[in-house]
Write a structure and sequence with these properties.
Helix 2 runs parallel beside helix 4 and helix 4 runs antiparallel to helix 5. The chain is elongated. The strands form 6 sheets. It has a 6-stranded antiparallel β-sheet with strand order 9-12-8-2-18-17, covered by helices on one side. It has a 4-stranded antiparallel β-sheet with strand order 3-16-19-20. Strands 1-5-4 form a 3-stranded antiparallel β-sheet, with no helix packed on it. The protein has 676 residues and is of the alpha+beta class. Among the domains are: 141 residues, no CATH class; 229 residues, no CATH class; 80 residues, no CATH class. It has 23 helices and 20 strands. Helices cover 47% and strands 13% of the residues.
């Protein structure tokens, strides 16, 4: 018999499977050396399972601990942050695998497996990722089932079947609770380290947008209430950069405005400065589902008006969320594409900010800009002259050459090759040097139209930078110098423009976007995206629809109706479980011989001689012989006949004799011995 502390082999098998699956789930964002450590630890435990190797000694264990600690410091340079903390937990997880001797060690590792697998939701909440997490939890549950099984099975699949059955039984009740439980915020709202390849950053220098141009991840999806506008109209405004230090553009603080609060919330009265926005025509209504950015800024078309209470319009005409976006976010917007922004007057402090250029940088551009301004005093003519220069002499490329200290001078007069941020930065600097207020705007441009679901996919490679100049009487005007160099960038999909270049999607080597030229794979990609979008809208975004759904379902949302719904719906959801338990209950398998023997016991019980629990037929007969000697001969005879009918070769004949003898057995109370 197996000792109580020993880990069942079936449990150990599923535990090892769980570790391997956990490594696979986190393969993308773990350092290679941690993955290798996990593989080595798993192989070592497999050899222990096969009784080929021995447990590692203390020296080996401490050496591995030291190596993992050093590796974390060298790889990340810090311990704070999501990825370093997950890597630290994972390192302890795989090292724990080398010292499981008792059931309690296996339990610790199993509970860690649950946590490690669920942590995948921090990095991705797509439908595919959610299904993978669901599937990965099954082996862990199977290991728990095998650990607590009364008898060790020779087929590990039996534990997996039990785990799958338990999970399927829990799903209906889980759905009921999902519908009615109030939302208290995501447990996985943990800020992640932001980098240039995860989305538009809060600053911009040469090469930042170029990196995003190699990333095929989805930035957000847009569903319009009507037709999708033309590609050239889809400028998704995100951030406004007014500060420039000679190389990097960044946001300047909101100080200086004296006409109200900097943020205008959708559920509050409009600020006084809302009047500086002149909107013409009918608004364009749409809903955006934004991927995780870990930043508060949002994206929308020009002159947006938020329809969501947690989203505000800022004084520089962009949208801001109340909190950083740490999970998928849905928000509704109205935009007026025909508009004027601040056409009458630009505050003096703002004009000075939008004209500022750092000293000691780009002297040639400053000189040329001042000369052109004298030659071309009209602002719009000056703009067209610079755009004509871009059109004649410049090249739009994903492989721009590196720039030194004087980034604008080197780009405008030497290299003449660049991506959108090169053009936006040089244009704004030139305009400022010529005395025209200007600033850089970053966001996304265009998007991919889904052919069947009528929504727009905006990818990271659609990230774009353009310029805004202020002209008295007209306000802030969008000027996109990239359109002068490569108008096809604005008129067509970015992917269609660059998909033949080797470095396109270099940051997303496994993206199906790389195979969009293969028709059936492209259809598969779009079908998967439509499923993921539906998942984001109806499952991840259910928070936004919960109250309306419950109102339509229950007529009113109050504790009484919610409780009644939980009881009724929960009962219906658990009904299949009750039916399954009833059908699978232990059946009464006693045959006719057992029923006859129970009749024998019942007749004796009526005269005060009941059979004790667990008492065998012979022991019962021996006790009857002592307590009722007058029945001893009959009871002994019936007991022998019962045993022969049960175990003899001629069971049918013995059964008939036992049945006939039992029919004549009719004891009375007078047969019981009166003394104890």
């Amino acid at each position: 018999m197996r000792p109580l502390w020993q880990i069942p082999r079936d449990c150990l098998f599923w535990l090892l499977v769980s570790v391997v699956i956990s490594i696979g789930l986190h393969l993308e964002h773990l350092p290679p050396w941690i993955v290798l450590s996990g593989i080595v630890a798993t192989l070592w435990q497999i050899q222990l399972y096969r009784e080929r190797w021995r447990q590692p000694g203390r020296f080996i264990k401490w050496s591995l601990v030291g190596a993992c600690a050093a590796g974390l410091v060298l790889h990340y340079g810090r311990i704070s942050g999501l990825e370093p903390m997950v890597a630290l937990l994972f390192a302890g997880y795989v090292l724990k695998l080398l010292e499981i001797h008792h059931k309690r060690d296996a339990l610790v590792l199993l509970y860690l497996s649950y946590l490690i697998i669920i942590l995948q939701s921090l990095f991705s909440s797509s439908i595919v990722s959610s299904l993978l997490v669901f599937g990965a939890l099954l082996p862990v549950t199977a290991a728990l089932v095998a650990m607590h099984a009364d008898v060790e099975s020779r087929r590990p699949a039996s534990a997996l079947r039990t785990a799958l059955t338990m999970t399927l039984q829990a799903i209906p009740l889980m759905l009921v609770m999902f519908v009615v439980m109030p939302r208290m915020g995501s447990l996985w709202a943990v800020p992640q380290h932001n980098s240039g390849t995860t989305g538009v950053s809060d600053s911009m220098s040469p090469g930042d947008m170029t990196q995003l141009g190699r990333n095929g991840d989805v930035a957000f999806r847009v569903e319009f209430d009507g037709p999708i506008p033309e590609q050239r109209e889809l400028y998704w405004r995100g951030l406004v950069f007014s500060g420039f230090d000679g190389r990097r553009w960044q946001q300047e603080g909101p100080w200086g405005y004296n006409d109200g609060e900097f943020l205008q919330w959708s559920d509050e009265a409009p600020e006084a400065w809302d009047k500086v926005i002149v909107r013409h025509g009918e608004p364009l209504a749409y809903q955006i589902t934004l991927e995780t950015t870990n930043s508060p800024w949002l994206f929308a078309l020009s002159t947006p008006v938020s329809q969501s209470p947690t989203v505000a319009l800022s004084r520089d005409f962009r949208l801001v969320n109340r909190e950083p976006v740490t999970s998928k976010l849905q928000y509704s917007v109205n935009s007026w594409l025909d508009n004027q922004l601040e056409p009458e007057v630009l505050p003096g402090w703002r004009a000075r900010l939008e004209l500022a250029i750092p000293s000691g940088f780009n002297p040639k551009t400053i000189a040329v800009a001042q000369q052109w301004r004298q030659e071309t005093p009209e602002t719009e003519a000056l703009i067209n002259r610079l755009l004509a220069l871009y059109h004649r002499e410049f090249i739009y490329t994903l492989r721009p050459p590196a720039l030194g200290k004087h980034t604008v001078d080197e780009f405008l007069w030497d290299t003449k090759k660049g991506f959108c941020e090169f053009y936006a930065s040089s244009f704004v600097f030139f305009m400022r040097a010529a005395g025209v207020p200007a600033r850089v705007v970053v966001g996304y441009q265009g998007g991919e139209r889904h052919p069947t679901e009528n929504y727009l996919l905006v990818h990271q490679y659609d990230a774009h930078a353009w310029a805004e100049v202020w002209i008295e009487g007209r306000g802030w005007l969008r000027v996109d110098p990239t359109a002068a160099v490569a108008p096809e960038r604005i008129e067509m999909s970015f992917a269609d423009l660059f998909n033949e270049q080797d470095d396109f999607l270099a940051a997303s080597p496994f993206s199906l976007e790389r195979l969009r030229h293969i028709d059936w794979l492209n259809r598969l990609r779009l079908k998967l995206d439509s499923l993921d979008y539906a998942w984001a809208k109806w499952v991840l975004g259910y928070d936004n629809r919960q109250n309306d759904f419950l109102m339509n379902l229950l007529g009113a949302v109050n504790p009484q109706r919610i409780a009644l719904f939980i009881v009724l719906a929960g009962g219906i959801a658990l009904l299949p479980v009750f039916i399954m338990l009833y059908l699978s209950r232990e059946k009464n398998t006693r045959d006719q011989l057992d029923r006859l023997f129970l009749q024998f016991c019942s007749r004796l019980e009526k005269i005060g001689l009941p059979r004790k629990p667990g008492e065998g037929p012979r022991d019962y007969a021996q006790r009857i012989r002592l307590q009722a000697p007058s029945l001893a001969e009959q009871v002994d005879s019936l007991t022998r006949r019962y045993e022969r009918a049960r175990y003899a070769e001629q069971q049918e004949a013995e059964f008939k004799q036992f049945k006939a003898a039992l029919s004549k057995f009719k004891p009375g109370r007078k047969d019981r011995l009166t003394r104890p």
